[in-house]
């Protein structure tokens, strides 16, 4: 009798487990992986996407987001492997090349990154991320004119993209071209007065933050070399703003204003516009 009861309990347990498992669909596993990725819970995301890949091995998105989780963990070699799988599955789609190229940059493997970004542009000439990647390669070579050329190609595709004008202004900042810094940032503010860049894909957040950190370091060095440069403070203000550090952004724009002793009404209007944007965003 005891044996029969035990067998019945085991049978009920198995049925319960099977029912519970059947309620977790591939879509639910994928969604949980996405939530973990966007919450920066990369290890959890890797587990979910690994499970999803076993169920849906022909869906490139599983490899893509697992690769992005590995990238977020700085486990670059595994990220490269997953993005390579994406490329094998979709060899004429730019996204796999862009993600792998960005990872190669993080590994400081610029030659491999350059090949990937060139392939991205070859297969999708309308994808601005390929041009942005190539501009980053040129910056690494200290070829600022080459970087500007790549960004100009991107602007030919998307001439109203504020993010591209900001990228141009950053290249001008590195090259010491004060006039172009102001001009490009003014264009960015014209197309997006909040400098929110809503078109920026969340999947590229890690790349964006990495770029801002490098830009901030460059700005700090420029200020150390010339503490009376209003353009250096102005440029650092923009970087702080993009990183949502509004307090530091406000301090820098006010410092830039105090250092500027010219009478360019256009520049003064730009200062005022930046301050309004900083105040508006910091009060959200």
Structural commentary:
The chain is 79% helix and 0% strand. With 284 residues, it is mostly helical. Helix 4 (60-72) runs antiparallel to helix 5 (76-89), helix 6 runs parallel beside helix 8 (128-140) and helix 7 packs antiparallel against helix 8. The radius of gyration is 24 Å and the shape is elongated. The model is unreliable at 1-23 and 196-200 (pLDDT under 50).
Number of strands: 0
Question: Judging from the principal axes of the Cα atoms, what is the shape?
Answer: elongated
Percent of residues in β-strands: under 5%
Bin the helical content: over 70%
Q: Return the string of H and E elements.
A: HHHHHHHHHHHHHHH
Number of helix segments? 15
Separation, N- and C-terminal Cα atoms: 68 Å
Described by strand count, sense and barrel closure, the largest sheet is: none
Give the secondary structure arrangement, pairings included:
Layout: H1 2-22, H2 26-38, H3 42-55, H4 60-72, H5 76-89, H6 94-106, H7 110-123, H8 128-140, H9 144-157, H10 162-175, H11 178-191, H12 205-225, H13 230-242, H14 246-259, H15 265-282
Give a short summary of the structure.
The chain is an all-alpha fold. It has helices at residues 2-22, 26-38, 42-55, 60-72, 76-89, 94-106, 110-123, 128-140, 144-157, 162-175, 178-191, 205-225, 230-242, 246-259, 265-282. Mean pLDDT is 85; it is low at 1-23 and 196-200.
């Amino acid at each position: 009798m005891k044996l029969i009861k035990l067998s019945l309990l085991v049978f009920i347990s198995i049925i319960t487990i099977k029912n519970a498992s059947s309620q977790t669909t591939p879509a639910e596993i994928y969604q949980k992986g996405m939530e973990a990725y966007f919450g920066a819970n990369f290890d959890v995301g890797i587990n979910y996407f690994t499970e999803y890949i076993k169920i849906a091995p022909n869906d490139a998105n599983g490899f893509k987001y697992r690769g992005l989780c590995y990238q977020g963990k700085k486990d670059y070699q595994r990220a490269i492997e997953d993005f390579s799988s994406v490329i094998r599955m979709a060899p004429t789609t730019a996204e796999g090349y862009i993600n792998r190229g960005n990872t190669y940059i993080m590994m400081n493997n610029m030659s491999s990154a350059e090949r990937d970004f060139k392939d991205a542009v070859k297969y999708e000439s309308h994808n601005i991320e390929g041009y942005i990647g190539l501009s980053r390669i040129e910056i690494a070579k200290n070829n600022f004119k080459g970087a500007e050329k790549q960004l100009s190609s991107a602007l030919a595709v998307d001439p109203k993209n504020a993010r591209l004008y900001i990228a141009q202004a950053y290249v001008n900042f590195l090259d010491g071209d004060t006039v172009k810094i102001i001009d490009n940032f003014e264009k960015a503010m014209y197309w997006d007065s909040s400098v929110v860049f809503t078109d920026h894909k969340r999947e590229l957040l890690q790349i964006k933050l990495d770029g801002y950190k490098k830009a901030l370091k460059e700005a700090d060095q420029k200020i150390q070399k010339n503490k009376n440069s209003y353009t250096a403070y102005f440029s650092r203000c923009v970087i702080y703003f993009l990183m949502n550090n509004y307090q530091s952004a406000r301090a820098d724009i006010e410092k830039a204003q105090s250092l500027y002793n010219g009478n360019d009404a256009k520049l003064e209007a730009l200062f005022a516009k930046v301050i309004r944007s900083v105040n508006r965003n910091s009060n959200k």
